[in-house]
Predict the 3D structure of the following.
Amino acid sequence: MEIFLLILGGIVGGIIGGMGMGGGTLLIPILTIFLDIPQKNAQAINLIAFIPMAVVVTLINVKRKVIDYKSVLTVAAPALLTSILSSLFVGKIDSKILSVGFAIFLIGLGVIMMASTLRKCLYAYMNKCKEEYIFSD
């Protein structure tokens, strides 16, 4: 059963990662909650699983010619630096604190995404209502 859940977590993470959202958003909770894997191990597994997904998605986007290479350099340098620093920092943190921090991050991300979606829906609805009540001569 554990192997099945690991494979299922990989599939779900791959699908979500392929759609542009971090696959770890679901993979880490699946590993920690359902498979009782410690938070640090789950995050390490997620990072290793991310490598082939990132390579495939990057190759697809290069083929589609949708990569802005100037932006890549602007984003990649600080991302690389903070990744190194945070990985060193995480090694010194208790797994329980890391789990709580990740949970807070996911809740905050969910609230932001929900607010953004509601704002877009409200904006679309208000524009549709305006069009229905505009009288033409």
